[in-house]
Specification:
CATH superfamily of the largest domain: Nucleotide cyclase, GGDEF domain
CATH class of the largest domain: Alpha Beta
Order of helices and strands: EEEHEHHEHHEHHEHEHHEHHEEHEEEE
CATH architecture of the largest domain: 2-Layer Sandwich
Number of domains: 2
Number of strands: 15
Number of helices: 13
Structural class: alpha/beta
Strand content: 15-25%
Largest sheet: 7 strands, antiparallel
Radius of gyration: 22 Å
Length: 341
């Protein structure tokens, strides 16, 4: 890993000025695993990371949402890879951040500074002489502490936060939470036709027994975050959270005509995205097993918590329909799909 430093954008953060840690991560979808490694490192250090897969909500232009997120961030981590250099969307983000005087932390993976300057003159102008971090053979792991050091050098401090055992890091977006909480009293006691999705991930028992509980949590947390993100993407609610998975409800508190289909789409999206994380663990000699199932039926909403956790009583579950069940240990296209009953 090498630092390339000249005078850059540091003059935008004035001495003695302290900003509280909202970090935008600019990347392309092909680099999601690299991005998640950075995001996890930032969040473990107390910073709030914003990225497309988790931050963009359905129903509104994603371009508008990205622009707003850039405007609200304190710094932008720019993940520079060969794929990113070819992305018009990343270029628009770089130019937008430059116009808004947002400081950059460029992280180069598989690219050297001269290549960046040659391939992307617009980036070169925006970055100026900003110091760049170049990942070597050791990968991102030794680079992440340097990213955090660079953010702190800009006067951006991590937020104080408390760890929650009921809500994943990727909790429901603020506007969705406010909408649900505004009428939750009218929901409590209601009967709702819903689809319940249960998803979980686990490590081999022999491996789990050798690791501390904290280490197991650290390995499973990215998987649970992915599950929650896909639930929220399809406007479901994470009703209950466990250390190895979650229970989500589609149809309460938010209801749609196609809630059963949304649950299926969320389950299949979870399966697809966790395939990438599973490959990353395999490279470290570990395996990840995924299980998920979805049922539709009638429930009675008992209570909705401040964190949107929900307690409910199943009613008439003998008439419920199993919609989907799969285990990631099966071949890729083997799963039970029973929509239509």
């Amino acid at each position: 890993m090498r630092d390339h430093h000249q005078e850059g954008l540091h003059h935008w953060i004035y001495p003695g000025e302290v900003h509280m840690g909202n970090i935008f991560i600019s990347h392309v979808i092909a680099d999601e695993l690299l991005m998640r490694e950075i995001a996890q490192g930032l969040e473990e250090a107390g910073y709030a990371a914003w990225f497309f897969e988790r931050g963009v909500l359905p129903g509104t232009s994603y371009l508008i949402q990205i622009t707003r997120a850039i405007e609200a961030c304190d710094a932008l981590v720019l993940l520079v890879t060969p794929a990113a250099l070819e992305s018009d969307q990343v270029t628009k983000g770089v130019v937008g951040a430059f116009e808004r005087r947002i400081p950059f932390i460029p992280v180069l993976v598989g690219v050297i500074p001269d290549e960046l300057k040659e391939c992307q003159p617009e980036w070169r102008h925006a970055l100026g002489g900003t110091a760049m971090l170049c990942c070597g053979e050791g990968g991102l792991s030794p680079t992440i502490p340097r990213i955090i050091d660079g953010i702190r050098a800009l006067g951006i401090e991590p937020k104080e936060r408390e760890f929650s055992t009921t809500t994943p890091a990727s909790s429901a977006p603020a506007d969705v939470s406010e909408h649900i909480l505004s009428y939750r009293s009218s929901l409590e006691g209601e009967r709702k036709q819903v689809t319940v999705l249960c998803a979980g991930a686990s490590l081999p028992p022999a491996l789990s027994e050798k690791l501390d509980p904290e280490e197991v949590h650290d390995l499973l947390r990215p998987a649970i975050d992915i599950m929650a993100e896909e639930v929220h993407r399809y406007e479901g609610t994470v009703a209950q959270l466990a250390g190895d998975g979650l229970t989500a409800v589609f149809g309460a508190p938010l209801a749609h005509e196609d809630d059963h289909q949304r649950a299926l789409y969320a389950a299949l999206a979870i399966r697809k995205r966790l395939g990438g994380y599973e490959e990353r663990l395999k490279a470290k000699g570990m395996e990840l097993a995924l299980r998920a199932g979805a049922n539709t039926g009638l429930i009675k909403v008992e209570a909705v918590g401040e964190d949107l956790s929900m307690s409910y009583t199943p009613l008439g579950m003998g008439k419920s329909r199993l919609l989907l069940e799969f285990r990631k240990t099966l071949p890729e296209d083997e799963y039970t799909y029973l929509e239509g009953g």
